[in-house]
Amino acid sequence: MNFIISIFLGIGSFPFFAIMCTLPIFLLTILKYRAINFVRIGLNYTMLLYLLCVAALVLFPLPTAEEAANLHTHTIQLIPFHFIADIIKESPFVLNNPVTYLKAAFDHTVLQVVFNVIMTIPFGMFLRYYCGCRGRKVVLFTFLLSLLIEVTQLTGIYGIYHGSYRFCDVDDLMTNTLGGYLGYNLIYHIESRIPSIHTFDIKITKERNDRKVLKTPATR
To answer: In this model, does residue 145 exceed pLDDT 90?
Structure first.
């Protein structure tokens, strides 16, 4: 339930940040690509909304004053694939009992891993479709985004709190990075069936040039 509230906080803050970023988004898009591309601009706003929701999921809910007073340690989990042990230990999963599989699939230990993968799929899609990044760059940038999230959690928002109020986990780095790579692959395998974002630049530029030709007096 907390993650739903966090997402709504991200959505609620979007209009303010959208207004703040309107001029930079339009100027950067027009100056860089020499055309007004509303698809590109729309994707910029979509990515802004996405990043706000991610930030809200990472930061909120904040600890209460009483909880913050008891924060004195910085907790980190450094064992790769530790989530497998958590699933075996805490979920109803029993290998030789297929009846437990469905229940285990909806256990919080499994859902946490699934959500960590899903969270960065849009980021990988954006990097491939909008930026044209190759697989290695998508993996690198997604890893850096995840690392930023984990460091924020580990440091208690960079020292605002005296300890970690969210758990920093190396498995999150792995699952987040996997999500970005899946997003990249999704776009990579369907991009031949969808219009390239540069196609919209060409169309708008062509329409602008056509208007100039129509306004130019015919040569006698």
So the answer is: yes
For residue 160, what are the CA distances in angstroms to 6, 42, 60, 157, 167? Answer: 19, 34, 14, 6, 16
Contacts with 21 (C-beta within 8 Å, 6 or more apart), sequence order: 44, 48
B/e letters for 94-107, b = 16+ CB within 10 Å, e = fewer, are eeeeeeeeeebeeb
pLDDT digits (tens, 9 = 90+) for 153-163: 999 999 999 99
Q: Which residue would you say has higher pLDDT here, 201 or 62?
A: 62
For residues 213 and 106, give the distance between their C-alpha atoms in angstroms, rounded to a whole number: 62
Cα–Cα distance, 80 to 45 (Å, whole number): 35
Q: Shortest CA distance to 121 belongs to which of 170, 174, 185?
A: 185
- CB-facing half-sphere around the CA of 217: CA atoms within 13 A: 2
pTM: 0.86
CA distance 141 to 122: 13
